[in-house]
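Hi both,

Apologies for the delay on this - the queue was longer than expected. I finally got the pyridoxal-5'-phosphate-bound model through. Below you'll find the protein sequence and the ligand SMILES exactly as submitted, and right after that the C-alpha cells for the full complex including the ligand.
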Amino acid sequence: MPGQVERTFQIADVRAAFPSLELRDAGTPRIYLDNPAGTQVPRAVADAMMRSLLETNANLGGSFSTSRLAGGVVAEGYRAAADFVGAPDEDEIVVGPSMTALTFAISRSLAHSIDPGDEIVVTAMDHDGNVAPWLAVAQERGAVVRWVAFDRETWRIEPAALKESLSRKTRIVALNYASNLTGSVNDVRALCELVREAGALSYVDAVQYAPHGAIDVAAIGCDFLACSAYKFFGPHVAVVWGRAALLKSLHPYKVRPQSDAPPAKFEMGTPQIELFAGLTAAVDYLASLAPAQDARRARLRAAFATTSAWEERLAERLIAGLRRLKGVEIVGVTDYPGLPHRVPTVSFTHACVRPSQVAAELARRGVFVWSGHNFALETVRRLGIDEEEGVVRIGAAHYNTIDEIDAALEALEGVLSA
Ligand SMILES: Cc1ncc(COP(=O)(O)O)c(C=O)c1O
C-alpha cells in the first residue's frame, strides 16, 4: 500500500523530467548520490538555455529585438531568484558565477567598513566559501576572527555558543543554513536574531539548504543569503540576496561605465544570459511540483513540503542501512532524518577502509558519491578526521528512489567486506 508521501509525490514523473537519470555507463545504470556537489538538470532547464542561446543571443541595452528579448530573460531570472529566496524585491538579487565568487565580491565591498579590532565571526561548520572570504577581510583590515564550534550532539550551531562569540565589536557573522558535510541544519532564524541584537550583519550560506527546503529571507531575518543554482537543478550560476539599503551602501570594485545601482554594480561584465534562462527554468521546475493555481512563491513552498517528505524517507533508509554496516561511523545527526534537523546528506568514515577507496569502488559499481573534506575544512579538523581523506559523502535529492538507496547500500556492503 502506498503511503501518504507516495500518494502526493509522483517519483516516476519527476524522474521522467531528468534525461540524465536514464544514462548508463557500459550498461551500468548511474546512481547519482553526488547531489551535494551538484544536481542533475531537468530537460526544461537545458531547453531554456538552448532557446536563449539560439533565439535571444545579444548583449543588453540595444533597441533591436534580440537585445530586448535578452533583457527580458535577465529580468525574469532576477524575478525567479527573488521568488526562490522570498526576497521582498528583485533589485535585492545579485547574480554571479558561483557562491564563492559572489561572497568574495560582497566581503571585499564590506571590508571598507571594518576597522582594526572589529570582530568577524565564522563557524567550524561552514564550507570554506563562507569562511575564507571573511578571513581575508579580517587579515586585511586587522580584525579579530572568532570561531564558533558546532555542538557535537546536535551537530549544529547552538544559539548559546554563538552568543558567547558576539560582542559590541562584532561586525559580521558568517554562518550556514545546512552543512555540506554533516547535513545538519541550523536554526538560522534564531541565530540571525542574535546577530541583529548584537548590531552585526549576518551572511547566510544557503547553498546546501536550497535544494531541500523553501527559503524565506524575510522570515529568517538575515542581511545576506547566498545559494547556487547548480545545487538546485539549475545551471552553474549563483545568487546572493542582500538587504536593499545595504546593497545600496556598498562600494564594490567595478568598471566606471557600470551603473552605481544594485545589482549591476556587483555584477562584472556581460551577464551570462543563458544562465539566467536556466535559473528561471530551475525555479519554475521546482514550482511545477506543486499545483498550478497558486503564485510561484506559494508553489515553491508546497513543492518543498512534498519533496522534503520524500527525501526524509530516503535519508531514513540510508541512515538505517549505514548503521547496520560494521565499522561505519556516521558523522552527523542519526535520530532525525529530515527537516528541520538535517538534509539528506549523510557522511561517514569506516574503521578500516579509506573514504577515497570507498568512493572509487562505488564509482566502479555505478554509485556516484564524494570523498574528502568537501571544503568543510574546519569541520573535519575539529572532528580529528584525516584532512585529505575526509569522509564518504552520500547525498540524496528528490529524484532518487528507495531502490537506489538500497542498491548503493548493497554496493557499499560489498566494498567494505571485500
Ligand atoms: C555549503 C556550501 N557553500 C558554498 C559552496 C560553494 O558554492 P559555489 O561552488 O557556488 O562557489 C558549496 C559548494 O559545494 C557548498 O556546499
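Main takeaway for now: Residues 4-42+295-417 form a domain with the Aspartate Aminotransferase, domain 1 fold (CATH 3.90.1150.10).

I'll put the files on the shared drive as well.

H.
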